């Protein structure tokens, strides 16, 4: 009889342990999911920022081209009227303005490259987290299947033990009945 109770206690302990494992796996999965969502949000923000920077770079390039054209036209106009020291100073102003705009463009292009690299890294991190999350979910499902199989096995064992216990009780009752009959015959 105590063996049956010990089997039930062992089954209960195993079930509690598996339940704790599943709860832990679920919490880890939830944490990974939250982190994944945070990374996706950050990634989207960086992509928007990158798009804005690219637009700004294109706008600045366009402005540089327009200003360069205006400066060249102005320089040609000034040069046609009177070549003097003023035209030289205009050329140097034009040159410094173009250089400044080119430097801004280079800076924005470098920032653009940096943002692209960061976006690629975040995409890789997101993919890695999704893979880990998928593996964790699959592991949890596998553990759940194993626990279910173990539980079915223990339930089957418990049913067998209960049946054996019932048969033993019946046999004990029969033997006790025979003992009582024998004791009556001995007294008579």
Task: Explain what the structure shows.
The protein is mostly helical and 188 residues long. It has helices at 2-81, 85-187. The chain has one domain (2-154): Helix Hairpins. It contains two helices and no strands. Helix 1 (2-81) packs antiparallel against helix 2 (85-187). The chain starts with a helix and ends with a helix. Residues 1-63, 98-171 form a coiled coil. It is found in: Mitochondrion. Residues 1-187 form the HAP1 N-terminal domain. Keywords: Coiled coil, Mitochondrion.
Concise structural overview:
The protein is mainly alpha-helical and 188 residues long. 97% of the residues lie in helices and 0% in strands.
Which consecutive residue ranges, at least 5 long each, have pLDDT under 50? Answer: 81-85
CATH class: Mainly Alpha
CATH architecture identity: Orthogonal Bundle
Structural class: mainly alpha
Approximately how much helix is present in the residues?
over 70%
Gross morphology? rod-shaped
Q: How widely separated are the two ends? A: 36 Å
Count of distinct structural domains: 1
Query: DSSP strand (E) fraction?
Result: under 5%
Q: What is the strand tally?
A: 0
Total DSSP helices: 2
